[in-house]
Backbone:
């Protein structure tokens, strides 16, 4: 185990790129228009969100940059619209485009982090339950069943409310995103756990695992090097689709007022704030965040569906 | 493999091995439907010896417990009772068994390169230390089983069934075993490839002084490979003897029946004794001799009394009331 290449299961970095270029997945990606378009749009959304501080005309978090005289300006192509407020401003004089870019950033970060955390929880639970079986499997999967029997959003509300109450008040503002990530993960891990458990049970009884057990390879190494890589394909598809779901759950929680605070608005928060001004005629405050949210979730879902079709040969 | 090269000390002696599986319905179903717990007796009271440097074959129909014995011997399953004793190796430790599996498509991890598959035993058992030494040994093993060094960089799906079985053999050899359990290593292969793999295994036996416990349902394969044969039926050994004795003079009616199933090129349309019925369920084994419901010569005694296994004059052991001395 001196060099990196001696690790079992490790692929050589030089050939990995070549392998990726020559793989079926790459081929069907370049031959699927919808996947290419969705990936391009997603790349643009992510890049603009990541580089929001460089692109956005205004820092919406910085109260000093907000100008109350410029509040509720319509988009530039409307009468009364003004540069540089391309998509208009909200009631605080905040530039909508900047708020959306920053909001997308928060939504994507929370989406990714909660998918990562729920993957960690779900895959660990699934691997352990599937491999060891018995009592531990029963306990883990029954917890999962109970979680599944409640609506996702309800669990998320429950978790975020409880954690929020437990946090000291000065931490609430800062910890908001962490609470959201925890709440979304705790409601979404079961799907991974079930997928991984089912796959683990199949792989556990295969002869290559028995061969490893004959060599007295410790269980955690069998799980990590033999079983885990063989359960990844369905998990990858589920994770992509759940990334869209996580963004939506975050938006819903923020819309309900238990997500991101107005000081650091996510797309959901923006929609909630904008919703109040819909009837006063300031439609742009709510519409543009909604469009951005829909676009983000739709392209993620298109990619997820495409990935599922590609990785499941039975659907081709 | 003549009987001359086989030494007297057994590499493995198995004494009265028993293994049953709990196949009960889940707890809730048992309570609701008032069903008792159910046990499947996969191996009942089996004793045999594998001669050092020799090859003992276990034969029998599907479900007779052959593979369970293989997994008991290698330690993948734990026996309910009975004893297994391995001979001591050169290092003073008991020999450990490695295994070659039946399904060449499930026995290699599809996501590992072949060289990593073969190197796994070297790393796990710390048989080689540096990456260079491991690499060198992997290439050596690939060549031993008739593959080339460049095959190490490929993935298992790039190989045919026979080649995969060679990779399996190379992996088993990597741990430098003296004892190999082969669980139907050729049953998933084409006949032409079967012969190649079997010949490879015999060559390796001579080269490395390996001892085989060979499991098969194919009598012709078994005849090619083994020094001794044990015929199993429903978890028990019904007859055990030297290969040529057993083929020349099968004693147990079940052995006679099995030999009848071998295709004969010279007499393709000969009349055969056809076994009536099917293998009884091991969940509800018949009373007395387990073979009596299908036995052409069964008597009343057979359905009442389990025949003990007796050793005959020539060293053949048989479990049948009706076989005379």
Residues:
């Amino acid at each position: 185990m001196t060099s990196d290449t001696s690790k079992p299961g490790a692929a050589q970095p030089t050939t990995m790129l070549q392998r990726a270029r020559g793989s079926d997945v790459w081929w069907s990606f370049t031959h699927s228009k919808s996947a290419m378009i969705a990936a391009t749009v997603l790349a643009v959304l992510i890049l603009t969100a990541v580089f929001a501080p460089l692109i956005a005309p205004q820092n919406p978090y910085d109260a000093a940059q907000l100008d109350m005289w410029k509040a509720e300006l319509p988009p530039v192509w409307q009468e009364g619209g003004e540069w540089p407020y391309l998509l208009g401003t909200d009631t605080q004089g905040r530039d909508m485009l900047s708020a959306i870019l920053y909001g997308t950033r928060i939504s994507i970060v929370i989406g990714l982090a909660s998918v990562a955390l729920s993957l960690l929880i779900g895959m660990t639970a699934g691997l352990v339950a599937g491999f060891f079986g018995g009592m531990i499997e029963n306990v883990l999967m029954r917890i999962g069943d109970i979680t599944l029997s409640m609506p996702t959003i309800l669990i998320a509300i429950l978790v975020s409310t409880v954690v929020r109450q437990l946090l000291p008040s000065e931490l609430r503002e800062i910890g908001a995103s962490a609470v959201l990530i925890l709440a979304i993960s705790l409601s979404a891990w079961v799907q991974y756990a079930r997928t991984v458990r089912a796959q683990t049970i199949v792989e556990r009884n295969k002869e290559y695992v028995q061969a490893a057990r004959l060599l007295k390879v410790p269980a955690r190494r069998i799980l990590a090097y033999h079983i885990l890589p063989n359960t990844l394909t369905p998990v990858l598809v589920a994770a992509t689709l759940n990334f869209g779901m996580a963004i939506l759950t975050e938006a819903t929680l923020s819309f309900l007022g238990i997500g991101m605070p107005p000081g650091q608005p996510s797309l959901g928060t923006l929609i909630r704030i904008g919703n109040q001004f819909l009837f006063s005629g300031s439609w742009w405050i709510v519409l543009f965040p909604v469009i951005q949210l829909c676009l983000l979730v739709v392209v993620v879902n298109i990619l997820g569906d495409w990935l599922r079709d590609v990785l499941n040969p039975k659907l081709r | 493999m003549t009987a001359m090269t086989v030494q007297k000390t057994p590499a493995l002696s198995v004494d009265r091995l028993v293994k049953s599986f709990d196949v009960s319905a889940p707890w809730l179903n048992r309570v609701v439907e008032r069903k008792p717990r159910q046990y499947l007796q996969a191996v009942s009271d089996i004793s045999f010896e594998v001669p050092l440097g020799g090859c003992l074959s276990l034969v029998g129909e599907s479900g007779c417990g052959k593979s369970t014995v293989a997994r008991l011997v290698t330690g993948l399953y734990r026996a309910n009772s009975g004893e297994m004793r391995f001979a001591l190796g050169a290092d003073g430790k008991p020999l450990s068994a490695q295994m070659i599996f039946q399904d060449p498509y499930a026995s290699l991890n599809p996501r590992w390169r072949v060289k990593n598959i073969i190197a796994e035993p070297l790393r796990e058992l710390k048989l080689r230390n540096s990456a260079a030494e491991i690499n060198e040994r992997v290439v050596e093993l690939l060549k031993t089983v008739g593959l080339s060094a460049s095959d190490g960089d490929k993935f298992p799906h790039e190989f045919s069934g026979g080649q995969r079985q060679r990779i399996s053999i190379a992996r088993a050899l990597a741990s430098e075993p003296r004892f190999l359990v082969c669980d139907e290593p050729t049953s998933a292969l084409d006949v032409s490839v079967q012969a190649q793999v079997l010949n490879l295994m015999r060559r390796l036996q001579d080269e490395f002084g390996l001892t085989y416990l060979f499991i098969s349902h194919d009598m012709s394969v078994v005849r090619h490979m083994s020094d001794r044969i044990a015929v199993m039926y429903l978890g028990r050994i019904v007859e055990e003897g030297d290969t040529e004795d057993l083929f020349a003079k099968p004693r147990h009616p079940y052995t006679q029946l099995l030999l009848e199933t071998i295709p004969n090129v010279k007499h393709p349309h000969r009349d055969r004794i056809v076994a009536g019925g099917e293998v009884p369920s091991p969940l509800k084994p018949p009373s007395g001799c387990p073979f009596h419901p299908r036995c052409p010569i069964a008597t009343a005694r057979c359905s009442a009394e389990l025949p003990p296994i007796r050793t005959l004059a020539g060293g053949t052991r048989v479990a049948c009331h009706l076989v005379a001395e």
